[in-house]
Structure formats: structure tokens, C-alpha cells
Amino acid sequence: MARAEDRRAPDPGVVRRLGDLVRARTRLQMRPRNLEIIERVAERRAAERGASADAYLEHVILSHDMAELEPFIAELTVGETHFFRGPPQFEALRSEIVPSLVHKRRKERVITALSAGCSTGEEAYSLAIVLREAAMNEGMRVEVTGIDLNPRSLQKAESARYSAWSLRDMPEVVRRQYFRTEGDFWHLSEDVRRLVRFRRFGLTEGPLVSVFPRGFDLILCQNVLYYLEPDARPEVIASLAAALAPGGVLMFGPVDHAGDVPGCRAVHVGEVVVHERFGPVSVPPSSPRGRRYALLSIPPAPLPALRMEGVPALPVAAATLPPVVPEPASAPLTSSAPPSLASAFAHADAGNLEAALAELEALLEEEPEEPRAHLLEGLLLVELGGFEAALDAFRRCVYLDPSMMLAHAGAAVAGLRLGRPDLVERHAARLRALTVARGKGVDAPIEGWDGMTVGRLLRLFRDTEIQ
């Protein structure tokens, strides 16, 4: 029987020391929630060994035993993913990026792709499906590689066996074509599985070209950078860019804030920015990440790019914002909001918008997957006249929570302000689709925007002329 002292929570100082060791090995940021994960893993593994958590952690720290360190790294690198996560990204891949790459590589007769930080494989297999459909009529070979730091995730990826939750964004016709059911699980067809290989490799372990010297035509690295320490990000970005074949394309996730990519030019494809390799790549010196809004020139008052008479202002007050899951709330949003988000709400309510943005910057460093923070960021930036930056914030929000109607409405309004009718129509279409999916008519309210319904907003978009 374990002694009472063996069941005590580990000392916070010892937990931080183990966190420092993990950070030194992986260059992962040690946020408060990461330290909580380390504490849980330590308690579980110590109990299995009949030792106290402190004694177990001291053993791992002093021995530098990778076999014991690996479970901590594995728990810290479990990522949320599913097939075709990020509709704008895969829309851009299908419509323009992949067809262009297929045309460029006709002579080579092979197209290669990398899913960097592939987790349990859904993104790598999604890439393989898109590439296969584009290349099969050209008689080209498709090769997709998935890399990840977490060996348990890679084992699941190799099995190609998924729950319905992983397939939730997949069109039914694609699901029927490429999967078979067995009980509660879906098994991917061999036609796709044979196109993909997996390998354990961490992006901070060394240059990608040292492991993959042939390079890749397409690299996806979505929502990986924000897990890393700021001074590791430029090195990883340069490593990814150097691993592109000439004319290859690199795509980051909407919360990554990659900035300039060496040897690449930024290209807008619909709502997505991709980076196309055109020159040599040199590794930049490490430097801490700057402020999120350093390049945003905010005018002292909103300067609309066009007249929108009759369109009410977007909301910025805390009371108007919806919860993460758009269901009727039984309590005010701020009662369950993280402290930094509650503080940002308070500043916004008081009209101190720049202070609210500063709070959001700190929060998004710690919680980059909090959709409400990106939503509030976008609403504030619209109010301040930073429409391009606002549009990016709304895109990040709907990437994380596609059901957030207010973010689609905000993106459409930002598109209007920028004179981009294509963006207005795209997000208006998504508002219509969400309304249909919920079984509601055009009189359905846009949650968080008092007095605004889907139908009214769509009519205002239709009637507004860009001048």
C-alpha cells in the first residue's frame, strides 16, 4: 500500500525543473497548463512505481533518462486535429495550389508533400486524398510524409483507424469513397494509406534537409509554431523553407503568425496566405517574437474604406460575445472566461480598446486556440480601423470554431470595408449554410449582435455599394 506521503502532489519547484529539462530537449514553451500536465503524469507514473512524485521526478531529472522523459513529451504534444481541418486551407489547396504544383511537376511525374507536426495522421491523409485526386489523371505518383515528435500519435496514424469525430468535416461522398466502417470506427482505404509514410522527427531537432535532402513540393505546418519558444520559431521557419523544392509551397496555420519566410514570397490564395520558394534560404538569427500589432498602423479614429450607411457597428462589449459553443448560456460569459479574456472584456466595455488588445496579446501567447479571444481581437481591430488585421483575426476564430456566426459576420463586414466583395460573398454563404444546418430561417439572430438577424445582414450586404 502506498504511503500517504507518496500520494502528495509534487513540489512545484521540482515540476518546474522537469519542465526546464523538457524545454531544453524540445524547445516547447512551458505554459502553466504544461506544468499541470507534467504534474499529472508524474503522479500517475510515480504511483505505478510505488514512489512519491517528488522522488520520481528527481530520478528523471538527475538521470536524464529519455525512456522516462518520453511520456512527458508525449502528453505535452497531443494536438487537436481532424480530417480536412481548416476549410479555407483545403479549399485553397484543391482550387489553386495543388493543380499548380501538378502542372509544375509534370516532367518529374511525382509530387511530394510533408505534414509537419502531423499528430495522429488526419492532416497527412487529407493531403494524400487531395493530391491523389489531382494527380491520378496525370499519371503522377504521390508521396506524402508525416512527421511528429509524439511516438504514440504516430502509432495511431499508422493504424489509419479513426472515430466519427475525426471525420466530422469530411464530405459524405469522400467518406464513402475512402473509408469502410468496423463497429464504431472508420478504416482508411489502402489506396490512400500506401501514399503516406510516417517518421518520428521534431522540428527543433535539426534541419529538415538533413533528413529529407530531396525536399518537398508542398509543406503544411499548421498550428505548430505557437507551441515553440519564440526564439526557436525563426529557425524552424527557415528549416521548413529550406526543405521546399524550387517553386514549392509552404502553408502555416491561422494562429502561427509566421511573418516573412526566407527565400519565399507570400501569395494570397482566397483567404489563405502561402509562401512560395523562389530563392536560397539562410537561417536568420534567433530573436524574440515582437508584438502582434507592431506592423499595424492604427488611425486615431475608424477610417472606413467605403460607405456602409444603415449597417450598424459590430459589437465590442463583453456582454455581447457568444460562448465557445454557440448554445444559450445560463450565465454571463465572463463568469467562465480566462482571467486575461475577462480583463480584455472589461477594457473593451470601458472603451479602452488598445488596453484590451494588449490583454489579448498576452492571452493569445498562452491560449492561442481560444476562439473568443480571436473574435474580440477582430471586433476591436474593426473598431480601430485595422481591417486587414481584423480579417486575419476573424479567420483564426472560424478556423478554431467554424460555427461562430459573429466571426463570419465580422469577416464579411471587414471585407466590405476593404472593398473585397469576394470575401463578403464567401462569409455570407457560410452564414447562410450555418443557418440551414441549424434548421433556422433567415430571421435567426446572429448571437452576440443585438438586433441583427442573418437575413437583415445579408440584405444590407446586397444593398451596399462599394464606392
From TrEMBL:
Pfam families: CheR, TPR_16
InterPro entries: Bact_Chemotaxis_MeTrfase, CheR_C, CheR_MeTrfase, SAM-dependent_MTases_sf, TPR-like_helical_dom_sf, TPR_rpt
Protein name from the UniProt record: Methyltransferase domain-containing protein
Keywords of this entry: Methyltransferase, S-adenosyl-L-methionine, TPR repeat, Transferase
Location of the CheR-type methyltransferase domain: 16-253
Database matches in Gene3D superfamilies: Tetratricopeptide repeat domain, Vaccinia Virus protein VP39
Source species, domain of life: Bacteria
GO molecular function (one): S-adenosylmethionine-dependent methyltransferase activity
TPR repeats: 371-404
Matching CDD domains: AdoMet_MTases
GO biological process: methylation
